């Protein structure tokens, strides 16, 4: 028994160790002595990942691994991911109530609690686990094929959820924070073009449906703020109206989301699959080119993450209570709740179509134990709200993730096998 747990612990620690090595390299490259990944280089590289590497990664992997039959058999995974966002939001609301962060940081706290790194991190972990000797998930090539299906679907759904839900939470929180504190001013929302150019001033909004949507948020908030008592039903109506009226589809269809849609279409439609993906397809060169570009996604994101964590190390602030709350939610409470949900789903037959594949169950558990999504940092940059605080939060949550992910992965492997 003890020997088996030690073997599982070693298998689980390898992917985390590989990620730590790449992250440490990114931090070294961003260090003042070398400064290869300085601010400008990091912005350019982040734009390259955002617009090229991640969309190519998502689309190529979905096109290769997703079919209509597999989507049907994996129907519980989207439900599971939505559960992580709902549970995380509820726990994040408790963290906000207990720690009482400034208004402009409330959206950041909710986003960090609700949105896990459903994209690159599961892929790194799954691929490393499949290659390790003694892996409990069978032959490496079969594990790799199934694992890429699960990880690609997880990344696609996570990207859609992040940019349609967390983005607007941070947007509303930042606009209300500016209204509460006139000294902060109203910083213009940054556009995607500004991410490329590294110029964060005088830009058009990336996703706001109207040019004056931020000021409209301020006006609505000021109206309610001026009233002494507002019925709870009116408050709920106000927040729902603010959330729904200003959403622009350009936010929902971020490059990774567009790549996911393309990958779903190519993979699920037999005609396009035969045309682009299958062996001997006349347009197979398109898939090969996208796959070649996508290979750079994981190491590049790890390097950027290491550089950003160094930025967080240089910052200071009174965020100890907030950080402890987020770590408690993401690494203690939410994984424990996730074990109960996935176990109940298995007991009541929700995993019946994939019951013979322990890797599928492992991925479902893993989705509850991941650190916050790195793209939350990009979102805070877009609104200029909590950028330095986000760096500090990412630093400490990812530092604790090295131990937490190893322990939880070991437990999940033991549980499903």
TrEMBL record:
It is a multi-pass membrane protein. InterPro entries: Mem_transp_PIN-like, PILS1/3/4/5/7. Keywords: Auxin signaling pathway, Endoplasmic reticulum, Membrane, Transmembrane, Transmembrane helix, Transport. It is found in: Endoplasmic reticulum membrane. GO terms for biological process: auxin-activated signaling pathway; endoplasmic reticulum to cytosol auxin transport. GO terms for cellular component: endoplasmic reticulum membrane. The chain crosses the membrane at residues 6-33, 45-63, 75-96, 108-129, 149-167, 247-269, 289-310, 322-345, 395-416. Pfam families: Mem_trans. Belongs to the auxin efflux carrier (TC 2.A.69.2) family. Involved in cellular auxin homeostasis by regulating auxin metabolism. Regulates intracellular auxin accumulation at the endoplasmic reticulum and thus auxin availability for nuclear auxin signaling. This is Uncharacterized transporter. It comes from Morus notabilis.
């Amino acid at each position: 028994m003890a020997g088996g747990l030690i073997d599982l612990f070693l298998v689980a620690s390898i992917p985390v160790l590989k990620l730590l090595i790449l992250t440490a390299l990114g931090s070294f490259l961003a260090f003042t002595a070398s400064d290869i990944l300085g601010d400008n280089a990091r912005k350019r590289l982040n734009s390259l990942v955002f617009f090229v590497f991640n969309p190519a990664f998502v689309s190529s992997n979905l096109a290769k691994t997703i079919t209509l039959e597999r989507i049907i058999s994996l129907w519980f995974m989207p439900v599971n991911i939505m559960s992580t966002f709902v549970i995380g939001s509820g726990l994040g609301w408790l963290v906000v109530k207990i720690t009482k962060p400034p208004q402009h940081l409330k959206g950041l706290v909710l986003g960090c609690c609700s949105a896990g790194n459903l994209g690159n991190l599961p892929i790194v972990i799954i691929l490393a686990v499949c290659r390790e000797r003694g892996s409990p998930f069978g032959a490496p090539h079969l594990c790799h094929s199934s694992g890429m299906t699960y990880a690609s679907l997880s990344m696609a759904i996570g990207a859609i959820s992040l940019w349609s839900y967390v983005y607007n939470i941070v947007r509303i929180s930042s606009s209300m924070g500016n209204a509460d504190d006139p000294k902060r001013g109203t910083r213009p929302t940054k556009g995607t073009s500004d991410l490329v150019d590294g110029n964060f001033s005088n830009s058009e909004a990336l996703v706001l449906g109207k040019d004056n949507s931020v000021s409209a948020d301020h006006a609505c908030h000021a109206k309610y703020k001026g009233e002494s008592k507002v019925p709870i039903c009116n408050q709920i109506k106000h927040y729902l109206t603010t959330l729904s009226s200003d959403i622009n589809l350009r936010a929902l269809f971020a490059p990774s989301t567009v790549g996911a849609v393309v990958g779903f279409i190519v993979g699920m439609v037999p005609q396009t699959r035969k045309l682009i993906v299958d062996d001997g397809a006349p347009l197979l060169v398109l898939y090969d080119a996208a796959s070649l570009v996508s290979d750079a996604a994981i190491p590049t994101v790890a390097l950027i993450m290491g550089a950003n964590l160094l930025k967080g190390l240089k910052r200071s602030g009174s965020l100890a209570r907030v950080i402890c709350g987020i770590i408690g939610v993401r690494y203690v409470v939410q994984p424990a709740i996730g074990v109960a949900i996935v176990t109940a789903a298995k007991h009541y037959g929700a995993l019946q179509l994939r019951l013979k594949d322990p890797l599928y169950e492992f991925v479902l558990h893993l989705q509850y134990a991941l650190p916050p999504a790195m793209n939350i940092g990009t979102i805070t940059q877009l609104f200029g709200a909590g950028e330095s605080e986000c760096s500090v939060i990412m630093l400490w949550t990812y530092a604790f993730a090295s131990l937490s992910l190893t322990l939880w992965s070991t437990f999940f492997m033991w549980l499903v096998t």
